[in-house]
Amino acid sequence: MSTSHAVVVGGGIAGLAAARELARGGVRVTVLEGSPLIGGKLRVSEIAGLAVDEGAESVLTRRPEALDLVRDLGRGDDLRAPGTTSSAILSRGALRRFPAGQVMGVPSDLRALAASRVLSPAGLARVPLDLVLPETPRGGDVSVAAYVGARLGREVVDRLVEPLLGGVFAGRVELLSFETALPAVAAAARTHRSLIGAAQGVRGASSKDSGPVFATLPGGLGTLPGLVADDVVAAGGTVRTGATVRELRRRDGGWRLTIGPTRAPEQLDADAVVIAVPAAPAARLLKADVPAAARELAGIEYASMAIVTLAYPAAAFPRLPKGSGYLVPAVESDPERGGRGVKAVTFSSVKWPHLRDRDPGLIVVRCSIGRFGEERTLQRSDTELADVAVAELAATCGVTGPPVETRVTRWGGGLPQYNVGHADRVARVRAAVADQPGLAVAGAAYDGLGVPACVASAHAAATRILDDLRSREGADHGAEGTRAQ
Ligand SMILES: Cc1cc2nc3c(=O)[nH]c(=O)nc-3n(C[C@H](O)[C@H](O)[C@H](O)COP(=O)(O)OP(=O)(O)OC[C@H]3O[C@@H](n4cnc5c(N)ncnc54)[C@H](O)[C@@H]3O)c2cc1C
Predict the structure, then answer these.
(1) What residues does the Amine oxidase domain cover (predicted)?
(2) Which of 8, 86, 171, 443 has its CA 20 to 30 A from that of 358?
(3) Is the Cβ atom of 58 under 6 angstroms away from ligand 1?
(4) What superfamily in CATH does domain 5-40+223-300+419-484 come from?
(5) CA–CA gap between residue 166 and residue 189 (Å, rounded)
(6) Quick check: CB of 31 below 6 Å from ligand 1?
(7) For a pocket test of ligand 1, which of 41, 58, 221, 447 has the largest count of ligand atoms closer than 8 A to its C-beta?
(8) Cα-to-centroid distance, 356 and ligand 1 (Å)
């Protein structure tokens, strides 16, 4: 067991996963979470007697990190697959199946694209130009809208790529970085002149992956943080809630953290610190001793959104939905353009059969509202937001009568925006942090905001800290040995 003490600031999934690795590496670890609850964007609560996620609800299975974590916790057998992943898009006034073969909205199969009727005849006619257009220069980084629009036309951007990225980032395609928001397609596009060809390349490479694309836990993905925290404690660590870290300063080769309200501050010393909080609080903590990282972090913007969860009697639906849900492009959902404001609908009871099995008489639906720059949409009361969701379901799915229960969860500043230049910005943050012994950063602000990417960033942070502490302890022992001789 090491004698070192590491503090992890932030008890979201990144902070907890990092703490778990540190504790299992023999380090005494303390997690400091500012809010009363651990888990950050992973949270579950009951609606109409069913446990339903308020934030993230599933993990991608194409990346191993989150699944490995669940399996490592001995819960691999609990993983649940969706009943269906077939989803639709509300385009040109009707719900239409997502075209087969698309990669984050970039089509790889022109016949499937035509059959989906998501695009207008003119929009569809524009797409094959991609096959003959000369290479599109992109220099360092460009926006998703600029690159995809130049290759495939504006309708592909507006009606396919934007709604999918809207689901992940709640972001704007004019601002989001092609390199970091669509990393697989952007990497393939370095070796394919045609973007359709790049999407075909990505599809070809992933066709070996079989099985469901998503997984969750039976009590909701929001149960994962509790499992990780229990493991941290079992390995000798401490997890504190209601412990907001207000200041971080270098001290005697380690760090001093100031916690709690200004009238009753508490100080805690650590040999190493992992900062696993969103970019704005990370910037505040790093301002004094790592100003270069703080400046860069302060430039990362965040989108706010809300999830309205509704539990309906099954009879409220004229027919039970078949797919897992549908997306509403900004061009259709923007209230300023006559839309209702809902950008995505998930039929949770259809997507997750274990939820339906628990109460076959209920259909639980999650509606997502709000994009970057649409703050006005969220300035409405909870009742008004719930009414927006009810109106959306009535208009698009013919749902009648009121839901038996409604829950509104607001995620203010919930999603980092990977805007043009994000990768370079993150590289500058990491370079500044790398100069500081015993310091690492992790979480959604950096190299991917999905849970698997957050767990991967936690692993990288914990590895850095463990290496650093071991080499320092080795040096201390060496020095003691020399003194003893
Ligand atoms: C509505 C929604 C749905 C999502 N759906 C999915 C999904 O289905 N699948 C998926 O993979 N991803 C999804 N995501 C993204 C993913 O959930 C998040 O990116 C990820 O959980 C972020 O984890 P984190 O640990 O980096 O940060 P957070 O979850 O933000 O955790 C950071 C923690 O730090 C705490 N904190 C902040 N400042 C301080 C401070 N000064 N001192 C102490 N503590 C502090 C916060 O209270 C918080 O608990 C979704 C996100 C949202 C908002």
Answers:
(1) 13-466
(2) 86
(3) yes
(4) FAD/NAD(P)-binding domain (3.50.50.60)
(5) 22
(6) no
(7) 41
(8) 27
Query: For residue 131, what is the DSSP state?
Result: G
Among protein residues, the one whose CA lies closest to atom 6 of ligand 1: 56
Q: How far is the CA of 467 from the centre of ligand 1 (A)?
A: 26
Question: Residue 54 in contact with residue 309, Cβ under 8 Å?
Answer: yes
Match domain 92-206 to its CATH number in 2.70.40.10, 1.10.1040.10, 3.40.1000.20, 1.10.3110.10: 1.10.3110.10
Beta bridge partners of 345: 326, 367
* Structure token pair of residue 419: 């805007």
Structure tokens at 369: 């509202």
CA of residue 41 to ligand 1 center, whole Å: 4
pTM strictly above 0.90: yes
Residue 284 Cα: closest atom of ligand 1: 41
Cα 13 to averaged position of ligand 1 atoms, centre (Å) = 7
Q: Give the model's confidence band at 231: pLDDT under 50 very low, under 70 low, under 90 confident, else very high.
A: very high
CA 93 to CA 340: how far, in whole Å? Answer: 13
What is the distance between the alpha carbons of residues 190 and 64, in angstroms, rounded to a whole number? 25
Spatial CB neighbours of 264, under 8 Å, sequence gap ≥ 6: none
**Cβ of 449 below 6 Å from ligand 1:** yes
Specify the CATH number of the domain 302-416: 3.90.660.20
Nearest to 275 by CA among 19, 56, 452: 19
CATH 3.50.50.60 maps onto the chain at: 5-40+223-300+419-484
247: left (phi over 0), alpha (psi -120 to 50) or beta: beta
Residues of the chain within CATH 3.90.660.20 domain(s) are 302-416
Q: Give yes or no for residue 447 CB within 6 A of ligand 1.
A: no
Both structure tokens of 406: 């409604």
Ligand 1: nearest atom to the Cα of 453: 11
pLDDT tens string 386-411: 999 999 999 999 999 899 999 999 99
Nearest-angstrom CA–CA distance, 71 and 212:
17
Q: Whose CA is nearest to atom 27 of ligand 1?
A: 12
What percentage of the chain exceeds 90 in pLDDT? 87
336-373 pLDDT tens trace: 766 789 999 999 999 999 999 999 999 999 999 999 98
Sheet (strand 362-369) strand order: 94-97, 87-91, 325-327, 342-347, 362-369, 302-313, 405-416
Between CA 147 and CA 169 the distance in angstroms is 18
